[in-house]
Amino acid sequence: MKETRAVVELGDDWCDVTADRAEDCDLDHLALAAELSTEVHPAHPFFGTALDVIAHRLTNDDVLCRHRATPSRYSVLHLTWSHREEIGSCPTIDADGEWRDIVAHENAVDAALSDAALSESALSGAGTKPERGPTGQPREEAPRCPS
Asked: What does pTM read for this prediction?
């Protein structure tokens, strides 16, 4: 089943693996499900749960899955690409619930990243942070040569 319309709601950072291969994606989509299956271990909450990978994030190792037994349930998991069964809470479950929960999670992530970018740009403005020398002291402006 094609998920393209739903995945589009998540933004440009997601590649729908159920659609025709995207031009800007060079990831082997078949490898995603294989890695997820490899990493989920007996103590993981999704061990034994049938999940279909429907999308992956282009900027990190997150995958979006639909639960086969409960088609209205989705989860975002972060793969480690260790190529082995993981331990502990890996792969982490970053979001879990109905579609609206996934969209809300993504909106919160986007807002946090936007806030962080605004904060970073405010800090990097000219004159707000003096350049530091090797001793950590602010550099003094070099004397100008007379013209």
From this structure: 0.74
